[in-house]
Design brief:
Elements lengths: L13 E10 L2 E11 L4 E5 L6 H9 L6 E6 L2 E2 L10 E5 L10 H11 L5 H11 L15 H13 L5 E5 L7 H18 L2 E6 L2 H7 L2 E6 L2 E6 L1 H6 L4 H6 L4 E10 L3 E6 L2 E6 L9 E6 L5 E3 L9 E14 L3 E7 L6 E6 L12 E7 L4 E2 L16 H11 L1
Parallel strand pairs: 3-8, 3-9, 6-7, 7-8
Antiparallel strand pairs: 1-2, 1-4, 4-5, 9-10, 11-12, 11-14, 12-13, 14-20, 15-19, 16-17, 16-19, 17-18
Helix pairs in contact: 2-3, 2-4, 3-4
Length: 393
């Protein structure tokens, strides 16, 4: 990527204060407080209907909050029209003008606002996304990935303080999506703008964002660096939505100043007190599938290692880099084990009796015990939300 200093104008921070959004019959956002630092790549991650798209529309000015304020760079923009806000949006659909060249598409907004040097600024933005050499082509002559880059250049050329990305890579195939993830991150670091990325794709959020906020039923369930959320989820929802987790219902059975011991059907599962939300009574603990090891015989007792079993392998899936085992353990849901294929083929077969072990330091304790269903479960797309708003007027 070209090093374009003129794009290094810093982005602005975004602050949401007590934001609520109610539509007839349901609440899309419940009292969200959020600060996104200037120049950061921030991802709102969650399933359909969690409130992430509504949040983006509120920031863009396409919806008005029922309650709360929106500040960009310390300036209250809650009552400003979309075109008055220092914000640009990149949509999944690209929304390029088919009759215009790539250069004309990128320069369109600048020319409309009568900005001097619109053509040169558009060339500069196209060089940033490495497409200036085909600036005379029409959108139909470009691949999906190239069209996505043009949409990004068109947004960046306006030098917004805040760039909103609404599922921008959803229309691309897997290989191209992964390539664009890396390029988007690189562009964000280069231009220095604040990116707010809305997605349901966990890998996308983990790959690109400095900070991820996991949304569920109109609330932010947990927020932090990707590695922090993955290694130490606080709720059942986060543990299951951000990757896979094996969860066990256990009873606290003592411990030391730093370690908590629990009982699981006569087996001891230990964890660090610093890695659990609760430390008394019946609690739920978990461990990620790749942290587990399979054993054909009961492993030797080790104070720092948890062991459960025996169980029986009910499914084996070879997926190249790893083999995924499903193990039936009495008193628990099926346990998933991801084993790296350091040798040829699976190390165990369906029907084998096995024990499972993992380091106590990889166990986490959750704040809740089950995933509440109900509340906000509707699949609310951007279009559906806009239709609901129109009906309410």
């Amino acid at each position: 990527m070209a090093n374009l200093n003129s794009f290094a104008e810093s982005g602005a921070d975004l602050e949401l204060v007590g934001i609520q959004k109610r539509f007839p019959g349901f609440t899309a956002i419940e009292n969200v407080d959020l600060t996104i630092p200037a120049g950061s790549f921030f991802a709102l991650l969650g399933p359909s209907g969690c409130g992430k798209t509504t949040t983006l529309r509120l920031v863009a000015g396409l919806e008005d909050p029922t309650e709360g304020r929106i500040l960009i760079g310390g300036r209250d923009v809650t009552d400003l029209k979309p075109h008055k806000r220092p914000v640009n949006t990149v949509f999944q659909s690209y929304a390029l003008f088919p009759h215009m060249s790539i250069l004309e598409n990128v320069a369109f907004g600048l020319r409309r606002r009568k900005i001097d040097g619109a053509t040169e600024k558009a060339h500069e933005a196209l060089r940033l996304v490495e497409l200036d050499h085909i600036s005379d082509r029409k959108p139909a002559q470009l691949s999906g990935g190239q069209q996505q880059r043009v949409a990004l250049a068109r947004a960046v050329v306006n030098r917004p303080a805040l760039l909103l990305l609404d599922e921008p890579l959803g229309a691309l195939d897997l290989k191209l999506r992964r390539q664009m993830q890396q390029e988007l991150k690189q562009i964000q670091q280069e231009v220095g703008l604040t990116f707010l990325h809305v997605t349901h794709d966990q890998e996308e959020a983990m790959t690109m964002a400095d900070t991820v906020a996991v949304m569920n039923k109109g609330r932010i369930e947990q927020m932090g660096a990707p590695a922090e959320l993955y290694e130490l989820p606080r709720t059942v929802f986060v543990a299951n939505f951000l990757g896979q987790s094996n969860l066990f219902s256990v009873t606290v059975a003592g411990g030391t100043e730093t370690v908590l011991h629990t009982d699981f059907n006569g087996s001891r599962i230990s964890l660090l007190r610093s890695r659990t939300e609760r430390n008394a009574g019946e609690i739920t603990v978990g461990v990620r599938p790749e942290k587990l090891r399979l054993h054909r015989e009961p492993p030797a007792v080790d104070a720092g290692v948890n062991v459960v079993g025996p169980g029986r392998i009910t499914d084996v899936s070879f997926i190249g880099v790893s083999t995924q085992y499903t193990v039936s353990i009495p008193g628990s849901d099926d346990v998933q084990v991801f084993a790296q294929n350091v040798e040829a083929g699976p190390a165990a077969r369906e029907g084998d009796e096995v024990w499972l072990s993992w380091l106590a330091e990889h166990t986490f304790g959750l704040a809740d015990d089950r995933l509440d269903t109900g509340a906000l479960t509707a699949d609310l797309s951007t279009r559906a939300i806009a239709s609901q708003a129109a009906l309410a007027e």
